[in-house]
Design brief:
This protein has 317 residues and is of the alpha/beta class. The protein contains 8 helices and 12 strands. The protein binds 1,4-anhydro-D-erythro-pent-1-enitol and uracil.
């Protein structure tokens, strides 16, 4: 007897559940005949978004295009939607700004480095999900980070993203005024991810605050940038204060990611591996194969989580 693919089975069983759409709070969009998502090289006038994307339930985003391609290939195998050699086309092949891959109901999108880059991508992604009439979407950032007081290779699941003064907020300048947005993340989703990590039982996973900075060097208290005006003692004191404020890792996108997902009503999480312990150094000097291995951990955790949802459609979305 032919087997119903797991993905199809799940989307049918989910169809009756309460629908949560993607909130787009922009009255101006209704007045536009066409919306060109310039940085994706996609548009509502040229592409049939509902036909292309309406079944999307999980969106995974990460900095590097090649990592998001390998995540798509990994998910294809995990969900029995292809093998490791399946060629998954880049939906955004018309641009080299971002890359996007779709495997059944999973979308894998790159966002580049830093708040401005992920913010542009998220505006266009949220509109894409809205125009596609997607519902009950969960979005997870899988990334790399510098650890604070945790063993390198640990995975940090973000409870809240904090700024460089350890406040759980993101400040956006709009028309020359500062607008403060909330950066908390979904506690239920965090617990589901922790449970998955326990079931995998292969690497250390912690819940902690993630400090999101505007820069990799001075912004993260490194001593090895082109400029540095502080002492090693001042650096360590700052990072220890961060640790006391609950910070377990540092990266460069989580604050705007959390803020924008909160506004849009998307269930969101941030899962990052730590490449080093910043209390012990600044340079990322682990051998290449170790770094590659560690970078697969967020993919493995989130892949396990998605697969679990496919085999247990009763779980919340
Ligand atoms: C983690 O790694 C990148 C910097 O190396 C940045 O995008 C981030 O958040
Ligand atoms: N990414 C960061 O933003 N910081 C690090 O230390 C490592 C990766």
């Amino acid at each position: 007897m032919a087997q119903v693919p797991l993905a199809k089975k799940m989307s049918e069983e989910q169809s009756d559940s309460k629908r949560q759409s993607v909130h787009i709070l922009n009255p101006h969009l209704e007045k536009m005949d066409e919306d060109i998502l310039y940085h994706f090289a996609l548009g509502t006038g040229t592409h049939d978004f509902p036909a292309m994307f309406s079944d999307v339930k999980f969106v995974c985003v990460g900095g590097s295009p090649s990592r998001m391609k390998s995540f798509a290939q990994y998910i294809a195998v995990e969900l029995e939607l292809g093998d490791s050699k399946t060629d998954i086309p880049n939906i955004c092949a018309g641009t080299d700004r971002y890359a996007m891959y779709k495997v059944g109901p999973v979308l894998s999108v790159s966002h580049g480095m830093g708040i401005p880059s992920i913010s542009i991508m998220l505006h266009e992604l949220l509109k894409l999900l809205h125009y596609s009439k997607c519902s009950n979407v969960t979005i997870i950032r899988i990334g790399t980070s510098g650890g604070v007081g945790v063993e390198p290779g640990s995975v940090v699941i973000t409870s809240q993203s904090v700024d460089a003064t350890f406040k759980p907020q993101f400040e956006q300048m709009i028309l020359g005024k500062t607008v403060v947005r909330n950066t908390e993340l979904d506690p239920g989703l965090i617990q589901e991810l922790v449970q998955c990590s326990k079931e995998i039982n292969e690497f250390n996973t912690v819940i902690g605050n993630t400090m999101c900075t505007m820069d990799f060097y001075e912004g993260q208290a490194r001593l090895d940038g082109a400029f540095c005006s502080y002492t090693e003692e001042a650096k360590i004191e700052y990072l220890k204060t961060a640790y006391e404020a609950g910070v377990r890792n540092i990266e460069m996108e989580s604050s705007v990611f959390a803020a924008m997902c909160n506004i849009s009503g998307l269930r969101a999480a941030v899962v990052c591996v730590t490449l080093l312990n910043r209390l012990e150094g600044d340079q990322i000097s682990s051998p290449h194969d170790i770094l590659v291995h560690h970078q697969q951990r967020p993919q493995k955790l989130v892949g396990f989580f998605i697969k679990k949802h496919f085999s247990n459609p009763g779980m919340s979305f």
